[in-house]
Queue: 3 jobs
Job 1
Amino acid sequence: MLLTLITGLLLGWLIFGGSSGQKMEEDHQHTTEIAGETIWTCSMHPQIRQNEPGDCPICGMDLIPLENGDNQELDPMAISMSPTAMQLASVSTAIVGTSAPVKSLRLNGKVQEDERLVFSQTSHIPGRIEQLQVNFTGEYVRKGQVIASLYSPELVTAQEELFEARKIKDTQPALYRSAQEKLKNWKLSQAQIDQILEGGEAKEQFPIVADVSGFVLSKKVNLGDYVRKGEPIYEIADLSKVWVLFDVYESDVAWIKKGDKVRFTVASLPGEQFSGIITFLDPVIDPKTRVAKARVEVNNKGNVLKPEMFASGVVQAELENKANTLVVPKTAVMWTGERSVVYIKTPSGKGTHFMMREVVLGPELGDGFIVKEGLEPGEEIAVHGTFSIDAAAQLAGKPSMMNPEGGPAMTGHNHDGKMPSTASPVKPKVIQSFTIDQKAKSALQPLYAAYLDFKNALVADQLAEAKQYGSQLKEAISKVDMSLFKGAAHNAWMEHNSNLKNALQHLEHFKNLEEVRQAFQQVSDGMIVLTKAFNPMDQPLYVQHCPMADSNKGADWLSTKAEIKNPYFGEAMLTCGEITDTIK
């Protein structure tokens, strides 16, 4: 009996006690897993938090793991990132160093005649044109070639006077010399005068010879015209040397100086490379185009360079007295419009830590910036994945680009049906609005049709179509009748008209989507201001914003649909963006 009781207790303990213990162990493990559960977030939209990996519901980017912050950091304001998070966010760093600030500037221009080698071929004798040996522009003439013949009553009279003076030259030598000098004043040579004297008869038609060699740019007279002494007959240019006049934008003038070497190509001469030295830079900016002209003088061997040819040049510009300057990649800098920040990697034996630091930027170098203040040589900074680091800093309540003082991290709670914004509120720019009639509104409709086609082509990553619709927009702007805008609205339209044309000025010369998208950004800014000023559309327009465009500075565009289709990244990040305003 006792043996049976002991056996029953042992079995009960094994069944119930063992199960209880196992359950406690499983509960402990489950609690541990929950406590250590990985939260996934979006580097661009940190309000997104999920319990599993996937795509961001706003921009479609891959979610990254959110660190729990258990590691002890060297500085309470530093943000730590695990090697896994850095790999997923494509974070990479580089050592800051000094170098000579060299900027590769692309210049567009045209071939022009050398103004010093353009001549007016005039008639030195008054009379009527009897013959024109050169009848069309573009013809080449040689110095001394007969190019026209004319009848001059004054010349006939002067020849008669010479014959009479010759009869009394022994008694009146001064009169004879005076008669010859009169003919020489009409650019007749001594050989021609001797020929007249030998002939013994006055010539009614007299030849006009070319004073220089070159190509005829324009013909000023026709057969039978009467010309006065000194009146131009032809304009002739010597094209053995030409100028190439490049446009230098106002923002790039500081980089260009006399003596810089320019290498350039001409579209009509594929495979040919040319080079020259900048010999002159305009001292003033053109008030309409906002560019200065840089002149390059080129020896035109074989006359292959013809006036009005388009040229595309590159100059490696270097700032003077800036031999050892701190230069950082553009991707390392986050810019809010008022502040520029970078993330410094701080040494630690407990993981990777980053600290935000404000910097003062100098001139832009194409792929980088000169740093005037805020960094020292040898420091290590993040050059890729800076937005991911900044998003982690925002979530952890550490100083970040939009919140330099730090503060509580944003949560994913959504009490009003809208996602919380990641950017601090910015006071909108006040734009004066004008009332225009229906005719003026109708005149602006083609601008929006071309603009929306322009945007859709960029969304589809179509370079040729984007350039085509951009050109249509430029043409539509030119066709708007400015007289439809009255009073202050007229002055406002003229300003918008000029800004949009300047943004599209060089569109046809762009070679890639990046250049076209930069022009589209300026056009979009102008179209948004234009829309708010005149409000010509009957349907609402959505102002949409991508924070990653323009090297992480952000850029806007207009759309008739609320659906986000990003023209700055196309298929690469099609749905990245948000609606910031609605113009009704």
Job 2
Amino acid sequence: MSKTKSPAPRHSKPMPYPIAAPKPGRGAYPAEARAGMGAIPHPAGVAFRVWAPHAEAVAVTGTFNGWDKTAHPLTRENPEGYWYADVPGAKVGDQYRFHLTTPAGEFSRIDPHAREVTHSVGNAVVHDPDYDWEGDAFRMPAWNELVIYELHVGTFNDPDPTTDAPAKFRDVARRFDHLKKLGVNAIQVMPVAEFPGDRSWGYNPAHVFAVESAYGGPKAFKDFVKTAHRNGFAVILDVVYNHFGPGDLDLWRFDGWGENDGGGIYFYQDWRAETPWGHTRPDYGRGEVRQFIRDNAMMWLEDFHVDGLRMDMTLYIRSVRADGETSLPEGWSLIQWINHEIREKYPAKITIAEDLQDNEWLTKKPAEGGAGYSAQWDARFVHPVRAAIITPEDANRNMNALREAIQFKYNGDAFQRVIYTESHDEVANGKARVPQEIDGADPTGFWAQKRSTLGAALVFTAPGIPMLFQGQEFLEGEWFRDTVPVDWDKRAEFRGLVKLYRDLIGLRLNLMGQTQGLCGQHIQVTHVHDEMNMIAFRRWMEGGPGDDVMVVANFHREPREGYTIGFPATGAWKLLLNSDRTGYSELFTGYPSGDVVAEPGDYDGLPAKATLGIGPYSVLIFSQPKG
């Protein structure tokens, strides 16, 4: 499903601190009633609760009563419109639906809180809440040590591309050895909430509490998360709250009511319903809908043990349109509420906004008026860096724009941004994978290899949380489609490039104990030469041997010989990575860069300087050895 991006409003002052959404009908259940929404299994049967304020009568039908709409009526619990019944003998695995009698007619609906469905237009299934996590107590790495790998379940590792069926969670897990060797430690999964059909990007959720049946369903997702944790991976899940549907959407006029051709109780009934994906924006101002979205976010963290949420296009939660005049304060306060609760209950879990408007308020704390996200995808990195590596002519590369991209921070915190050159959005919707954009005629050739890896080197050396998109490490080409699987044959063909990515990740995570600075907050872009297409910068945490890192990048097709740059200290500086090594690709030039000795003398605003050589479209990474 394509997604539209537009300019957007920026907040110049704090937005409202979250007001906890009311819990209509949820705070004080009758003594004999069981707590919860949807299907609530217990030893003697299953209780059912649903919100349908405009219904005149509600019944539950299912395999336990022969789909008889008269067998098990629900009782209206309160004026807010919550209905409840306890059905003895119903059990886990039973299929069911709600039958609603309303002034607009009779309707059979899938439970909005269904944790499992047979498919998007099928039936709800009573899901077993009990799951043996076998002591799972995974704690994700500190955010300055995260390396994220974004993937799409249906195409990441398709065992049989000749069929219409997508890959499943278990197929992704079969490639965990590759990801472990690569060195990533967090997997960001594109949305897995049940969507229409079997193939989709996932950004068209039909049932937000259910896990996509074509991927294996909820138990398979729990198995996936547990296995990921055992292999050392955090799991970050993409969730979609800026719109629902628009297809196969039983939420639409759920209890028959609607105004102005609107979608009823779960949606705005006026112009605020408008989104780029249909008129299906949830009503963020209605307490029951706020609770519905909040409960969904917490479900993934608590019931599925995911380690973070990446919220899709938050711009369209906080505003109706990207025109600066249509803000939605109730949308802003909703995400404040969710993020505040996550920060309080689960401080080690991460929330990431895809907003792409360079808005520092997204990652300020809710108490300060901010939205409270841990980090946000950074448009100020990806667009200038992609431009610098895709632009055909060296003379047109903007090194000053690149400097700003490298050194930018939100609120003075390097790790409030996620940086990348490829994501599901950047490689589709009229755009392609970076190698394809660089050289469409030869996307595996010299230029594509050199400049795509040049961009990747900046991802792992600039301040921020680095992210790769599936197959990037072995030069996956063309553009992203939910019907075209990753070509794993390329892993062997481009094993040298895989090693380059592995080496970059190792340095980023300080695995050799010589590059602590790449985990640090500090950056100083010390050298920019626009005409020569050269840039150099220093990274450090506290500074000194084993910490200070110097990164030198050549964005020109010619090597640079006898090139002088400043260094933060005199003495020996060891070359830890030369991206032009022929061991990474037989097409590379193998320019003989090496260790340098920095001599005293002010240069580039630093107290020492050294002369070096660097190959075409290459990066050199130096550190000062310990001892």
Job 3
Amino acid sequence: MLPLKCLAKLVTLSLLTLGLPSISSGQLRVAKVFQDHMVLQRDQPINVWGSSSKRKRISITFNGRTYTTRPDKQGNWSYTLPAMEAGGPHLMRISSRKEAIMVSDILIGDLWVCSGQSNMEWTVASSNDAKAEISAANDDQIRHFKVPHSWAKTPQDTLAGGAWAVVSKETVGNFTAVGYFFARELRKHVDVPIGLINTSWGGSRVEPWMHPQALSGYSLPNLDSLQQAVQIKNKMKLKELEAKHGPLAKKDQGLEMGWHTPDCNDNQWAKLELPGLWEDKGYEGVDGILWFRKTIELSEAEAAAGIELGLGKIDDSDWTYVNGQKIGSNIGAYAKDRVYEVAPEQLKAGANLIAIRVEDTGGGGGIYGADELLYLKTIKGKRSLVGTWAMKIGEATFKAKAGFRENQTPTILYNIMVHPLLRLPIKGALWYQGESNANQSGAYVYREQFADMITDWRKRWKVGDFPFLFVQLANFMQPVPEPMPSHWALLRESQTAALDLPNTAQAVIIDIGEADDIHPRNKQDVGLRLSLAARRLAYGEKEIVYSGPVYKEMSKDGKSIVLSFDHIGTGLVAKDKYGYVKGFTIAGADQQFVWAKAQIRGKQIVVWSDKVADPKAVRYAWANNPDDANLYNKEGLPATPFRTDTWPE
């Protein structure tokens, strides 16, 4: 979170209030996205809007000019400023008779909306080479606004919250990694400020991001009945938890009460076996703050040399203490391995207390991961910390599932995480989502839903067919020895189908996924490939190669099939030291695919198999994890997975 001095400033009479740019009396307000350090879209009319409880004239002073407007009968006001060139920083003053809101350090540049599920929400701090990336972050022309997780039954005019942050070593770790690396690459070629609006939610399907009218024919749930079921289940579960643990605090007082110090007696605390999410250990649905404590014994030599603590993965955030002294913290890094060095001056011979304050904002929470990640390392070797830890709830809320998940329910994320942004002109959108739709019933339907969402967003944003750049699903899960149907491959095909829409591009990343992790850590190449597409579609670099080979057409040549491609750049290449092309399968009329041989012949690929005398169809990289697919263009961009058939999967 930004320090208060970095948030929008509000002047009401002679009183300065820090926080969101609204006043304590609630009379004059501006949309929550208007805060210090924001980025406004260049070369587009600039909408400014808000509300006021009094129908007094409102003045907006910006970039040397003053404009006036009045609220309507409902108290809502708006004004459209003329389009402006890139530049800044600027100050915006919004005032009525006795009130004023000041928003400072505004840049005019290009604004990109970053949306989707966890791979878009994934932070720089949890990506490859995080320490080096954070240490090198110094471009204050890149700004980031995180829309908080929120939902609403109907379209809202106001965001639930959020704040702008300027790139720095202190802030960039919490940026969307895909968005940040995209912006960083763009800044090497486009000398304008870049703003990123990060409106994403891990685990979300595409349907929650769609307006009801874009989901025509889709059966929408009865939210009222779902909420009633949730409320009933919540009350029952809360009673069970409080019967077991006493009243659940609404505010954590662990630090005030010294739960991080050796002086605290934890004999009466609950006991929990770690590693493991507390959701799986009797605390299903609990979010909030839980404390964990464990005492370790060190010899004099071990204490004098210092130690290393491996604490596994912690969902979502941790503040870790040894003997009452804070040794480290990671915020919002739910998939990051925690490894902390503890200096000799923080240790002593004999008993030493480890205390971990864990905050979970939703879903599973706790200290989890493989047993070997939970350890103590001293000069005498490594010891396991797996086993019983003392645990106490510091602050808790409860969310029952009861068949209702906000990030799975149609339209309700759009209503408050997208709709309030529609008045803000943008340069384009980045989208990374699809994993949650890659199931048997959703993978094929996705092609219609995704295209409908893109079309609907463009219609409602009213800035034309803005560039819509999306990331295709990475390779994931264990490779299979023989060709077989794949829902992930079908979902990738559905994503590729959206390229039929104008001004769209796809970043193919089947070469940088991880078999055991749905969240690839290499977000740098994702951002780079998206930036190539942006440079072509949004910034008009006509000669740039921004896509790998894309299947165009096939022809038959005896027992072989010959494939032609678009986007071959300066030529096709196989990334294999022997030059073999891999990842192709072939089938005859029986629709039984077998592994095929393939060869590059100029600008085409010839595919065949001795097992198929009369081939009818070819597939490439058609698997959950096509780990051997190795067709690229010479510019280093991977070929898009495809099939030439339309046979049922």
